[in-house]
Amino acid sequence: MSKKNSTKEMSFLDHLEDLRWVLIRSSIAIIIAAAVAFTFSDFLFDTVIFGPKKPDFITYQWFCDMATRFDLDKSFCQKELPFELQNRTMEGQFSVLIWTSITAGFILATPFILWEVWKFISPAMYQNEKKYASIFLACTSVLFFLGVAFGYFILVPLSINFLSGIQISPEIKNQIDINSYIGTVKTTSLATGLIFELPVIIFFLAHLGIVSTQNLKDFRRYAYVLILIVAAIVTPPDIISQIIVSIPMIILYELSIIIAKVITKRNQEKSHEITSR
């Protein structure tokens, strides 16, 4: 869907060609960003990846202070987390270095990837909607990075603290494989970043008429239950921690309903204008 062809119909092969170049340019951007991450691998691993493993990580300090102040569960007030990391394969650390750099490259290159996606889909938008490209890029990038930050600073420490503290017998020592640990950090952070894109996804689904405000309202009770279940699983057994995890998800869902309402109303008005002509 290149802009040079926006004034005329494009064939299926033309669309595929444009999509191919979107993927090529996005892949190049990820490789360049991954090379930067690889160059600063010491900081990437020692400070970022292994940060949630350290008892002085900012999230643990915050939850410990909060637990002390309100006399709650003090499982975060630990001098050492009860596990150690290990590598059990010859190529393990090299593989971890490469794939973690690629993941970091994907995160860093996200604004460029989103810009490429916008250029690809913009010909299908109304003319007055195309001028919001900068707003689209800013909103999607901010939401993604907020999601990654929420996953990294909140969900990852909660998950690590909870899972590393489970011990079915004193005979079993928690010696976690490096791939398992880093997989938890990467998957949780990326998944939360994508979840925070929910308002943007709803915008396009509502624009295409796939979802409506009523659909989201009808599913609201189930969404809230699902959010609360996830919060209860990943947090300590106190209500404040569960609220901290639940509130951003609930806000995102309610924001999606508002967006769907605005887009649905706009589509109805445009349909009415076309019909009345």
Structure description:
It is a single chain. The protein has helices at residues 12-39, 41-49, 58-70, 92-108, 110-121, 127-130, 133-164, 178-195, 198-207, 213-234, 239-276, and strands at residues 84-86, 175-177. The protein has 277 residues and is mostly helical. A two-stranded parallel sheet has the order 1-2. The chain has one domain (12-276).
**Gyration radius from CA atoms, angstroms:** 23 Å
Low-confidence stretches: 1-7
Q: Tell me the strand order in the biggest sheet.
A: 1-2
Tell me the number of strands.
2
* Overall pLDDT: 83
How many H/I helices?
11
Span of the ends, CA to CA: 29 Å
Which term fits the overall shape? globular
Q: Could you give a short account of the major beta sheet?
A: 2 strands, parallel
What's the multimeric state?
single chain
Task: Tell me the helix content.
Answer: over 70%
Q: Could you say which structural class the secondary elements and strand pairing correspond to?
A: mainly alpha
SSE string: HHHEHHHHEHHHH
Transmembrane segments: 21-40, 96-115, 135-155, 190-210, 222-237, 243-263
Subunit structure: Forms a complex with TatA.
Family: Belongs to the TatC family.
GO molecular function: proton motive force dependent protein transmembrane transporter activity
